[in-house]
Design goal:
The protein is built from eleven helices and eleven strands. The protein is an alpha/beta fold. The chain has three domains: 82 residues, no CATH class; 123 residues, Transcription Regulator spoIIAA (2-Layer Sandwich), CATH 3.30.750.210; 112 residues, Transcription Regulator spoIIAA (2-Layer Sandwich), CATH 3.30.750. The strands form four sheets. A three-stranded parallel sheet has the order 1-2-3, sandwiched between helices. Helix 10 packs parallel to helix 11. The structure holds iron/sulfur cluster. The site of iron/sulfur cluster (SF4) has 10 residues, from helix 4. The site of iron/sulfur cluster has 10 residues, from helix 4.
């Protein structure tokens, strides 16, 4: 999602400015920050040192935008020349080359408040784009010869067009699928809690669907899922995967999972291990838990040692790579 935002910021800037080849040549530096994971935040703090070095040699103007938590915002106010609120208008559609991937936001923000996630606090609650604007951008991308089109939202299954309440995500996908062109449609991310039979049917019959699906499970243990505020059980998730695989047998399934969530015991982790062995995901994105400021989890003790998180991560990587 941040990549899509950055593309649109670049479109706006390039109307008036020439693109610099590197940070060392730029007089205006816009940082589009993501606070979802700690390493991304650390990278912005790292940039502050770089700015100091550049400023010794020449004048630069620095602007910060994107997802920023309150604590960082206070510090960054002193370090950046300007802080800009995230643009939610999505007006600046990029001119894609055929070999590029088109990134089309369908919504921003989220109402789900998973207990570890900072998105509802940085991007705010769910705001959906008009389906007509989204379909126009898909059409334009197809006309530009783009082969891969991604529809982006924090939870695409929560989508509802502000122009027509009857247009939910499955309906939007069905309309997008009617657009002429040689492109494949991808989307991320759907929430397992509301992945409907209707969307499975539409995907199974679609001519543009890429047959790649990221379905974040986050944990293979019901108690941990509950504490994550993810309202589904492992059984419900497994049933959903079976249903999807039955309807689309050649689907490529990926998942996201967090290891070392506060209080996650070895037994609870072994349930995630079991799930990985059973479902044999094609790809897995494994994240070691780190507390994010402002979330419900930030009040919990981060009590799984880093070494143990690393061990759990390695176990899942091994299963994901070798089945
Ligand atoms: S659904 Fe995704 S974006 Fe929304 S709160 Fe949960 S993890 Fe964050």
């Amino acid at each position: 999602m941040n990549e899509a935002d950055s593309e649109r910021i670049a479109v706006r800037l390039e109307r008036k400015h020439k693109k610099a080849r590197s940070l060392n040549e730029a007089d205006l530096i816009v940082v589009n920050m993501c606070s979802v994971r700690k390493p991304a935040v650390d990278r912005v703090y790292g940039l502050l040192e770089k700015f100091k070095e550049i400023r010794k040699k020449r004048k630069i103007r620095t602007i910060l935008t994107g997802c920023i938590v309150k604590k960082d915002l206070m510090r960054f106010r002193k370090e950046f020349d300007e802080i800009l609120e995230q643009d939610k208008s999505f007006k600046d559609f990029p001119n894609y080359a055929p070999q590029q991937t088109a990134l089309i936001p369908i919504s921003t923000g989220c109402n789900n408040f998973c207990s570890y996630c900072v998105v509802p606090f940085t991007r705010g609650t769910l705001k959906c784009r008009d389906h007509k604007d989204i379909l126009k951008e898909i059409k334009k991308s197809a006309q530009q010869g783009v082969k891969e089109i991604w529809l982006l939202g924090q939870n695409v299954n929560d989508y509802q067009s502000p122009a027509d309440k009857k247009i939910d995500f499955s309906e939007l996908f069905r309309l997008a699928d009617k657009i002429k062109g040689e492109f494949k449609l991808y989307f991320t991310s759907p929430h397992p809690k509301n992945f409907s039979d209707k969307i499975i049917k539409i995907l199974a019959q679609s001519k543009h669907f890429s047959k790649y699906l990221n379905l974040p499970v986050q944990s293979g243990d019901d108690i941990i899922l509950k504490r994550m505020n993810r309202p589904y059980t492992v059984k419900k998730y497994k049933d959903l995967v079976r249903k999807i695989r039955k309807a689309i047998p050649d689907i490529n399934l990926s998942t996201d999972v967090i290891v070392g969530f506060p209080g996650e015991t070895k037994k609870q982790f072994s349930n995630t291990e079991k799930l990985f062995k059973e479902l044999k995901f094609n790809i897995a994105y494994i994240n070691k838990y780190s507390p994010r400021e402002g979330t419900a989890c930030s009040k919990l003790k981060d009590d799984v040692p880093f070494k143990e998180k690393k061990r759990r991560e390695q176990i899942l990587i091994k299963i994901a790579n070798h089945g």
